[in-house]
Amino acid sequence: MTRPLSLGQEIEISIDRLAYHSGHGVGRYQGMVVFVPFTAPGDHILARVVELHSSYAVADLLKIEVESPARRTAPCSVAGTCGGCKWQHVTYQEQVKQKQEQLVSALHRLNKSHSLPILPMIPAPAEFHYRNRIQIHRHGEKLGFYASGSHRLVEINECLLAEQEINSALETVRTRHLKPHAPDKERVEIARLQNGELDIRPASQQDGGDGRFAQVNEAQNSVLISVLVKAIKAIPFASAVDLYCGSGNLTFPLAEKLPSTPLLGVEASPYLVDLAKRRQGSQSLFQNIEWAAQTCATFLRSWKRPPGPLLVVLDPPRPGCDRETRQAIGKLRPQQIIYISCNPTTLARDLEPWLNSDAYEVEFIQGLDMFPQTAHLEAIASLQLKNSL
Ligand SMILES: C[S@@+](CC[C@H](N)C(=O)[O-])C[C@H]1O[C@@H](n2cnc3c(N)ncnc32)[C@H](O)[C@@H]1O
To answer: What is the pLDDT of residue 288?
Structure first.
């Protein structure tokens, strides 16, 4: 079959939606999918084909013929060049709408067979200045981010995603070149710590350690935690497991909600488990938590589940659960499973066998926007064992 496009060809197309993950605008030319970075749904554009694949093409925006109502002037002068924000040229309302459509689309097949209650996306409390830490490059006295896929420094005076307090520390970072033996180039992390102090150090010396927030968007992380805690059923759980628990971001709120339930946090990184233990020790609260510094699959292979109702919370990284973990969770038949996901595609894949076994029903699936101006998307799904009450 001949392709309708050739490299370098100029085409006029309409943009229908924004793609998950890449964030590019998506349109079609004679049936072929074309991705065009930095476009908005509703734009009619002139673009030039720069990549040609068997089932899709990528094109560069040349001219906006008809501007979408969802388009706005990006508030930041380096949006589109600094390698960070992908969606500043799209109104925030439209960003949230697109994320909802991406979630629904990723769950489409599962939704057809199980008619899922997908709730409306929760927008972030603030679309700008939400990050409590950033990493920035210093070249001599110049500060900036690297342009996408390169080591070319795009200079900045502030970052619209960073908290204002972090921006106010940029000058301090700039003056590091005056220090004796200062390297000519370095990557520096600026972080607001939980005690309110600012921590500035070379990113190579940053160890994700004590005092940092587990999540960069603290305000939306609190919303996520409140959705999680509210979702827990009033079942007398005999045990609860927080899989992929990191340094306990979700484990501690779970322990507070279920003070008399033995709770296990499972995390592959011994370093993060150690941080969690230190936090537990320093607060002398949460004595109902124990930790396992193991992969979830290894842990579940030998875990002796206490008799009685079980709650499983899991928050895996983008690739989702591995097959062994997914199957082990299904075999345990927890009364409730709460799945927090940063990738709707693997969320759909992982939920499928539990739902197809006909043992579980979905109480809700709720998207949350944790990272405005970017194509990242978080979701939380609550499943209950049928006839478990
Ligand atoms: C999305 S993070 C979630 C962390 C935590 N729940 C939070 O809210 O901050 C995923 C975590 O899973 C851990 N991880 C990755 N693969 C793992 C595995 N196979 N078993 C256990 N933990 C794993 C990572 O180290 C990371 O801390």
So the answer is: 92
Task: State if residue 244 touches ligand 1 by the CB under 6 angstroms criterion.
Answer: yes
Please state, in angstroms and rounded to a whole number, the distance separating the CA atoms of residues 316 and 297.
Answer: 12
Share of the chain above pLDDT 70, in %: 97
Considering the chain, tell me which residue range(s) the CATH 2.40.50.140 domain(s) occupy: 10-66
CATH of domain 10-66: 2.40.50.140
Residue 29 Cα, ligand 1 centroid: separation in angstroms?
41
Least confident residue range of 52-56, 117-121, 203-207, 340-344? 203-207
The CB of 272 under 6 Å from ligand 1? The reply is yes
Express each pLDDT in 59-110 by its tens digit.
999 999 999 999 999 999 999 899 999 999 999 999 999 999 999 999 999 9
Helix (H) or strand (E) holding 98: helix 92-106
Q: 298 CB less than 6 Å from ligand 1?
A: no
- Report the CATH architecture of 94-126+217-385: 3-Layer(aba) Sandwich (3.40)
**Which residues does 166 contact at the CB level (< 8 Å), separation at least 6?**
131, 132, 133, 134, 159, 190, 191, 192, 198
The verdict on whether 342 is a catalytic residue reads: yes
Q: What rounded mean pLDDT belongs to the chain?
A: 94
- 194, 244, 249, 321: which to mutate for ligand 1, most atoms within 8 A of CB? 244
| 267 Cβ closer than 6 Å to some ligand 1 atom | yes
